[in-house]
Design a protein that fits this description.
The protein is of the alpha/beta class. Helix content is 41%, strand content 16%. It has twelve helices and eleven strands. The radius of gyration is 19 Å and the shape is globular. The mean pLDDT is 95.
């Protein structure tokens, strides 16, 4: 009998990639979405069951977990993300889930005092205490964040703004995170392990700007801004203040040298070499193209 794998946060950057890859394998895929309307783009995938998961309606969570064998646990970046994760773990326990794969963050195991890392470690600890076999995926900063969060100013102003100085970070492509996740969800021997996922190199935002300039054919600049200016910009884009504070804290950690570690885990677990930033930039060239604004 085919196993049923539930992917929560199925419309997110990593979640939708995982669902797409799983849909091509001999498993039953259940895509958990915040609303059925947001999950419309997943309906074109073969053999994918879309389920609405509303945290304010526990009944919807119970239905989503019914007859599920494994869970890809992805929670939103919110102030109550630990509570939401714990709620999903409780449902997994009740449903008799055999394996939880949690999308965490690089450095979650370190006692850095960085809030974002602490949130993920708290969620990890709750999973460990649940008794369900688990695997933690701890990716570095996503390459895709450059178009998701900075694509607008790159297209309109040929620039992006961050408070990270000349620090180098081992960025990772979300496609590599998804490929690794699928290998873990459908493979064996990964229980009780934590995998730190990075790309093949640590690069600075100056290097990012140079590579984006190369693939787009126009000069794109990285502009360093003070942390408070970055925070103001996030709040202006309607990010809750607590989350803006958490992001500024993470950026400050990067500026101080956190995030330079490069691992070979993507290749070791997935069997394929990770994307370089140049390959990412070439594949996502249109996301940074001026024509996108016309």
């Amino acid at each position: 009998m085919r196993e049923t794998i539930l992917v929560t946060g199925a419309t997110g950057t990593v979640g939708r990639e995982i669902v797409a890859l799983l849909s091509m394998l001999d498993v039953k895929v259940r895509a958990g979405v915040h609303s059925i309307i947001k999950g419309e783009n997943l309906k074109r995938l073969p053999d994918v069951d879309i389920v609405e998961m509303e945290f304010a309606a526990p009944g919807s969570l119970t239905a989503a977990f019914t007859h599920v064998d494994r869970v890809m646990l992805i929670t939103p970046f919110t102030e109550n993300q630990v509570a939401l994760s714990n709620m999903l773990v409780d449902e997994a326990v009740k449903a008799g889930v055999k394996h939880i794969v949690k999308l965490s963050i690089a450095g979650a195991e370190q006692e850095t005092g960085v809030q974002v890392l602490q949130w993920h470690r708290e969620a990890e600890a709750y999973i460990e205490a649940s008794g369900i076999p688990y695997t933690f995926l701890r990716p570095a900063y996503f390459m895709q964040n450059y178009y998701k969060y900075f694509g607008d100013t790159i297209k309109k102003e040929n620039a992006f703004y961050l408070p990270t100085g000349n620090a180098q970070v081992a960025l990772v492509d979300s496609r590599d995170v998804a490929t690794t996740a699928v290998a873990v969800l459908t493979g064996t021997g990964h229980e009780g392990k934590a995998y730190e996922l990075t790309g093949p190199e640590a690069i600075s935002n100056e290097q990012v700007a140079a590579l984006l300039s190369q693939v787009t054919g126009r000069e794109i600049n990285y502009v360093e801004v003070p942390a408070e200016k970055a925070r103001e910009a996030m709040v202006a884009r309607h990010m809750p203040e607590k989350l803006a504070d958490a992001m500024v804290e993470l950026y400050s950690a990067y500026k101080a040298g956190f995030g330079t570690r490069v691992t070979n885990t993507v290749a070791e677990v997935s069997g394929r070499e990770p994307y370089t930033f140049q390959l990412f930039a070439e594949d996502y060239k249109d996301c940074f193209s001026e024509s996108e604004t016309k």
